[in-house]
Amino acid sequence: MEPIKTTNFELYDVVIANEPEELKDFAYVELEGWVRTNRDNGSIGFIEFNDGTYFKNVQLVYNNESKNHDILSSLNTGSAIRVLGKLVLTPENKQPFEIQVTDCELEGDVAEDYPLQKKRHSFEFLREIAHVRPRANTFQAVFRVRSVLSFAIHQFFQERGFIYVHTPLITTNDGEGAGNVFDVVTHDTKDPNSFYGRKVNLTVTGQLHVEPFALAFRDVYTFGPAFRAEHSNTVRHASEFWMVEPEMAFADLNDNMDVIEDCVKYCINYVLAACPEEMNFFNTMIDTTLFDRLTHVANSKFERMTYTRGIELLQEAVKNGHKFDNNKIEWGMDLQSEHERYLTEEVIKGPLFLTDYPKEIKAFYMRQNDDGKTVAACDLLVPAVGELVGGSQREERYDLLKQKMEELGNAEELAWYLDTRRYGGCRHSGFGIGFDRLLMYVTGMQNIRDVQPYPRTSGSIKY
Amino acid sequence: MEPIKTTNFELYDVVIANEPEELKDFAYVELEGWVRTNRDNGSIGFIEFNDGTYFKNVQLVYNNESKNHDILSSLNTGSAIRVLGKLVLTPENKQPFEIQVTDCELEGDVAEDYPLQKKRHSFEFLREIAHVRPRANTFQAVFRVRSVLSFAIHQFFQERGFIYVHTPLITTNDGEGAGNVFDVVTHDTKDPNSFYGRKVNLTVTGQLHVEPFALAFRDVYTFGPAFRAEHSNTVRHASEFWMVEPEMAFADLNDNMDVIEDCVKYCINYVLAACPEEMNFFNTMIDTTLFDRLTHVANSKFERMTYTRGIELLQEAVKNGHKFDNNKIEWGMDLQSEHERYLTEEVIKGPLFLTDYPKEIKAFYMRQNDDGKTVAACDLLVPAVGELVGGSQREERYDLLKQKMEELGNAEELAWYLDTRRYGGCRHSGFGIGFDRLLMYVTGMQNIRDVQPYPRTSGSIKY
User: Fold this and answer.
1) Helix (H, G, I), strand (E, B) or coil at A411
2) A51, A401, B174, B242: least CB-packed within 10 angstroms?
3) CA nearest B111 in A: which residue?
4) Is the four-CA dihedral A262, A268, A274, A276 of positive or negative sign?
5) Residues of chain A contacting B53 with CB distance shorter than 8 Å
6) What does DSSP assign to residue A130?
7) Across the A/B interface, how many CB contacts are shorter than 8 Å?
8) Is the pLDDT score of B175 beyond 90?
9) Can you list the alpha helix ranges (DSSP code H) found in B160-252?
10) What are phi and psi of A240, to 5 degrees?
11) ipTM of predicted assembly, 2 dp
């Protein structure tokens, strides 16, 4: 009888479906993957086996009658093996099935210095072995959810007819003008900028480049890397990260908030449905409030409140004795995370759009409101985190935008951007999601270094 | 009666479905988008209208009874408008329906220097106005197909359980060691490499970083930007481009070729099905052999032939009088496009995997064959283009890989990569698709500058 080549994922699928005919086809199986643990009691041995296709291990059982018993009994954690065996249902046990091994081949042994052992390792330690940590439980879960969440983003926008635009990474401008950019040069020592004939840097945002596409396709989005050369050594900052930046023509700030709300809910529901094992792991091992937090947001109507009203509420809170680290609340200030969290956690007890911020603390391209003091911006605040998404209606009025850009000094540099306001411009809006932070939010992971495959942070680069 | 807000896409959808009940809902519509052309005969006027949601225009018809007739009759190409009107089926006309305008608002006018006029513009000219060209027909088609093809790639791999990995863009190694990298520095004039504490550059490939993930998840892929600081001023070279790099554990060269074949066929069929209007445009206006070429490949069994056999056939061709620009065919040479095309177009007359290349002309990580002279590489050659995909089985044997890397001088730098061969390594394979070139292949576009939103090529950067 020929064995059927299969995987952890397929085996769980077949056993749970429990169709007798299909199960018959899987009576004799071949698996290839890695040993998580191996304990040999002498008469009987057990291997926790995983081939990376599913979060759950498959239990391999062997005894003296298994061929190559000597190989089986000496397998170390991490070895790559090929096994043949019989599928046996074990409905009374913790695992719904096991594989009774008939034969085994060692495909790749592990050296003695293999750093992943049975014991629990700290995230700090695992960060130092980024090439091995994807095999650890937590990172199996993190990186599968990262992949699924990426696809959820694409699916959300593609289903709604948005066009995916690959905005450039190497660019001549620095977006919002914050100045913390990485420069891109070549080895030409006489003129490191000779390749393009001018100074270039890594992009901080794709927004300026994607806006012209919204004026051609109506609804568009970017999803790609962005860079900031900031020496912010926090758990939420990385110098390289992925951003999602949708942009919609003929959309105002309210339309924008509608799409943000739909998008966040879609992502949460998608991941909960597509990754039940992984999400259960996070809810058990990483953050026991995770499910409550996510389902609460997915089932809430997102509230909307102006920045000005938010300031009033914060001032009232201070008057009533609430203590913030920064207790001096004044209109015009940039809110700290503690203030944002107070509003979303204590006042609203749910997701909250704060809108219409003072123009001085927001980017030049945001649309000025009729009051002359605020701009049509919206930040989505959620409990336990604070800001999750930031967006705005863009300034479509040529004269107002030009004046702002001249003040900022980028009107000449970005003449093409300004021109879009003279070439059939229209009201339009967009937003930005820091993808890595969204992933942290959805998994409960607390450090951005633990949700990126090879994190890039100030002072540190190994791979 | 309230108008229903709708789009070009939805209108064509509703009219073609022709459900009387649904059509009734669309009797009175509101549209927002841009004027492509406007001609006013005095008593009656016609606007070709497009809102970016669909390749085909909607015809707006107006007359003296339309409100704001003065606005309508003076609308210029490119203006953004909002119109209200009645949907009228016109089954006898070229367009299956038209909108009889009752009212119109000008949302955004166009300045006199608006560069897109009714006449046909050259691609060279349009490249200079990358912020406006997405509104031109050809680029509406190119960038919609780019988006759809991107999604097809994701869907192909996600459906098959592959994990999407965001490999880093900033890295310390230069992949295959070709040396043409962009360096990444900061403004710190004392030490431009101080940010990470060492010299870093932009990635040329995600492969080395994604291999460890294949050893954890079995099947994985990257899809992201890569960079080459090459002064190759050809129609197929850009310094910034997007790459798809799948990697599969427990897969040999034949498994690899199976996946490449499935993937290429899937992408072709997906785009043909999802973008009929755009593909029809390309087949009519850009390359009249396109449909034949694509359907031929989608319906062919991809042949497999060794490099050595390919050399023999090329030598025979020369003997029989075939003239290549480079007519000196010897084993060991790197094949030129003319040679590749001869094999796929003249010999096989269809898609062809050329396999088992001389090790000297291939990358260090490719698996050495038992002959000691060749490596388990495969290049997919297709008619009209030549190489479309390149892949290989990777060298999983520690000693052999170490020796090669020591010869190349990157064994120390890439110690972590080498270590994966000591930590439960296994046979594995992968490939790389230059996404922009795949898009050129699928659309018939001849210049990589015309399939990238903002092309980055040597000597040129404007945006």
Assistant:
1) coil
2) B174
3) A422
4) negative
5) 161, 217-219
6) T
7) 301
8) no
9) 207-217
10) -130, 130
11) 0.97
Dihedral sign, CA of B159, B165, B169, B171? Answer: negative
Report whether A430 contacts A207 (CB < 8 A): yes
Question: H/E element holding B10?
Answer: helix B8-17
Residue-wise pLDDT tens digits, B262-278: 999 999 999 999 999 99
Please write the tens of the pLDDT for every residue from A233-251: 899 999 999 999 999 999 9
User: What is the pLDDT, as a whole number, of residue A38?
Assistant: 96
Mean pLDDT of chain B: 95
- State yes or no: pLDDT of A178 exceeds 70: no
The backbone torsions φ and ψ at residue A262, rounded to the nearest 5 degrees and listed phi first, read -60, -40
Nearest CB among B78, B161, B202 relative to A423 is that of B78
Long-range contacts formed by A124-133: CB under 8 A, 24+ apart = A126/A450, A127/A449, A127/A450, A127/A455, A128/A462, A130/A453, A130/A454, A130/A455, A130/A462, A130/A463, A130/B212, A130/B416, A131/A463, A131/B212, A131/B416, A131/B417, A131/B419, A131/B420, A132/B212, A132/B423
Question: What pLDDT, on the 0 to 100 scale, is given for residue B208?
Answer: 96
Residues 129-188, chain B, touching A (beta carbon < 8 A): 130-132, 134-135, 139-140, 143-144, 146-147, 150-151, 154, 158, 161-172, 182-187
Is there a contact between B221 and B245 (Cβ–Cβ < 8 Å)?
Answer: yes
Q: What are phi and psi of B75, to 5 degrees?
A: -65, 130
Label residue B42 left, alpha or beta by phi (over 0 means left) and psi (-120 to 50 means alpha): left
Min distance A323 CA to chain B CA atoms (Å): 37
Q: Is the pTM of this model over 0.90?
A: yes
Q: How far is B349 from chain A (nearest CA, A)?
A: 34
CB of A213 within 8 Å of a chain B CB? The answer is yes
What is the DSSP-derived secondary structure letter of residue A321?
T
> Which one-letter DSSP state was computed for residue B450?
G
φ, ψ for residue B226, nearest 5 deg = -140, 165
H or E element, residue B44: strand B44-50
Tokens 């290429």 sit on residue: B264
Tell me how far apart the alpha carbons of residues A89 and A92 are, in angstroms, rounded to a whole number.
9
B282-B285-B289-B292 Cα dihedral, nearest 10 degrees: 40
| CA geometry: angle B239, A416, A227, nearest 5 deg | 50
Long-range CB contact pairs, B415-418, < 8 A, 24+? B416/A130, B416/A131, B416/A462, B416/A463, B416/B212, B417/A131, B417/B208, B417/B211, B417/B212
β-pair type (A4-5, B183-185): unpaired
C-alpha neighbours within 13 Å on the C-beta side of residue A381: 29
Which residue in chain B has the smallest CA separation from A397? B108
Model confidence pLDDT, tens digit, residues A322-352: 999 999 999 999 999 999 999 999 999 999 9
| Cα separation, A410 vs A177, whole angstroms | 8
> Cα–Cα distance between A111 and A178 in angstroms, integer?
48
Nearest to A196 by CA among A184, A207, A208, A205: A184
**For residue B199, which residues of chain A lie inside 8 Å, CB to CB?**
none
d(CA A282, CA B23): 49
Question: Cβ contacts of residue B174 below 8 Å, gap of 6+?
Answer: B181, B201, B204
The per-residue pLDDT for range A18-65, each reduced to its tens digit, is 999 999 999 999 999 999 999 998 899 999 999 999 999 999 999 999
Which phi and psi (to 5°) does residue B407 adopt?
-60, -40
